[in-house]
Amino acid sequence: MEDVMTLPEFEGGNRDLGRLCLHTITTKSWDIFTALSKYAEVGIGGISIWRDALAGHHLSDVHGAIVRSGLHPVSLVRGGFFTSPSDSARKDAVDENKRAIDEAEALGCPMVVMVCGASPGQSLSCDLNQIQDGLAKTLDHAEAAGVKLTIEPLHPMYADTRSAVATLKMANDLCDVLDSSSVGVAVDAFHVWWDPEFDVEIERCGKAGNISAYHICDWKRDMDDMLNDRGLMGEGIIDLNSMSRKVDDCGFSGFYEVEIFSRYWWAQDQDEYLRKIVKAYQNSCPSPLVSAS
Ligand code: ZN
User: Fold this and answer.
1) Are 262 and 213 in contact (CB under 8 A)?
2) Cα of 254 to ligand 1 centre, how many Å?
3) How far is the CA of 115 from the centre of ligand 1 (A)?
4) Ligand 1 centre from 125 Cα, in Å?
5) Would the pTM of this model clear 0.85, i.e. be above it?
6) Helix or strand (DSSP H, E) at 170
7) 205-238 pLDDT tens trace
8) Beta strands of the chain (E only): which ranges?
9) Ligand 1: centre distance to CA 260 (Å)
10) Is the Cβ–Cβ distance between 143 and 104 less than 8 Å?
């Protein structure tokens, strides 16, 4: 498998943005080809591609555009949603995840982000068993494709329908059970900043070699929507400087992936927004400037 931690070389002034990656959902109104050219234009290093951005396009065309852009394809987002009271729905979920793995392979993305799922009415242990089972059934396909399944623990406010995996500890525990180099963890600042066990669990994750991805944005105190009002780095209360340093100290040297769902920011001029993202990254995440040099 391609080493996801190997960063592309950058020339001159672009070098300090080498670890910056954007999720296409962050600039949702841009189609995949516009996003690729705009991101490349400002000199950032990577792109994480949401599957909805692929709709209506041939994967080979998108792959060609990625190669021409010089951007590093980081993650395909997203797979998972393994839970359901229905046997056939759980089987369909495994098949859908295999398709996501195939897409990631075709695009050269080394990992698929796993939002593991949760089903109202099922117990937590039932959800977790189904998630473990779904991941296990998907694993052979991922290994064969050389694509990593990165389990993303979600903030517990999403534990109703999106993810029963609500802490870094739960993601680490799943990795231990699955015991495969094709499984890792996506650490998202928005989801884990509050966790009193973060320091212990990020060290554990690092020691196991499982910090596969790091997502950043900010948590606004006056958030008016629990899904679509995430903050640009510096707009909220997450101490990204400390968290980023900690994640790096635990052995991570991959991309800093900006993933912001925000009706406010989506409605702004996207070129201006992109410039603000670059600035916010440089202001609030100083450690990559050190590590990337
Ligand atoms: Zn994320």
Assistant:
1) no
2) 14
3) 9
4) 23
5) yes
6) helix 168-178
7) 999 999 999 999 999 999 999 999 999 999 999 9
8) 20-23, 46-50, 72-80, 111-115, 148-151, 183-188, 211-216, 256-258
9) 9
10) no
